[in-house]
Amino acid sequence: MASDVTTQAGDAEATTKGPVDQADGSRRLIEETFNEGKLGLADQLIAPEAINHDPSQPAQLSVLRGAEVLKRTVMMYRAAFPDVRITVDDVIAADDKVVLRWHSEGTHRQELEGLAPTNARVTVTGISIDQWKDGKVVESWTEWDNLGLARQIGAAPPQGSIGEKIGIGVQRLVASRMRKKNPA
Fold first, then answer.
1. Do 163 and 95 share a domain, yes or no?
2. CA 3 to CA 19: how far, in whole Å?
């Protein structure tokens, strides 16, 4: 897949109009919705039946389509991290797809999906891919460091800790039972 446009965040140079418009739209969707709460932008740039693929998204969001998924996701994280700030670090646009590499920072001040606030300042990184058709996102894939976030807010044990070692031991017991239940 040849890249039509590769930019650092904020790089205004463009080699072709189509991918640049899509690249700017994808960047705006993530930065302006999360950072400024501009949820109406989702209605403008996401197709009504758009599909979102994020393995860490809560079950109640996985059944939704279109702009509503992004709007509820943004509201959830802005509530839990009122000072959330997402910055797009790189944009790669080719054909009908835009890839964003980004990082996010914020302070865990309110509950997040049942996890009590910790006041911990957190940083996570992620990559999102948007597929565009007729000027709107029709499908999106996101992968981000949710284990890193869980560790930073105390929802998962720190790497190398006794808690992690106990968790590995428990997982080995469960795996043994699963192998007996599901022989090869």
1. no
2. 9
Amino acid (one-letter) located at 110 = Q
- Flag whether pLDDT at 113 surpasses 80: yes
Q: What local confidence, expressed as pLDDT, does residue 184 receive?
A: 85
Q: How many Å is the Cα radius of gyration of the chain?
A: 19
The predicted pLDDT at position 134 comes to: 95
Inform me whether the pLDDT recorded for 3 exceeds 60: no
How many domains is the chain partitioned into structurally?
2
Q: Are residues 35 and 75 in the same domain?
A: yes
Residues 88 and 112 in one domain: yes
Structure-block tokens of residue 98: 């835009």
The domain in which residue 18 lies consists of 5-153
103 in the same domain as 78: yes
Q: Domain of 60: which CATH number? A: 3.10.450.50
Tell me the two tokens of residue 132.
């565009």
pTM of the full structure: 0.83
CA 2/CA 70 separation, integer angstroms: 29
Count of Cβ atoms closer than 10 Å to residue 64 Cβ: 17
The predicted-structure confidence for 24-36, as pLDDT tens digits, reads as follows 999 999 999 999 9
Burial classification of residue 172, based on how many CB atoms lie within 10 Å of its CB (0-12 exposed, 13-18 middle, 19 or more buried) = exposed
Distance between CA atoms of residues 83 and 81, nearest Å: 5
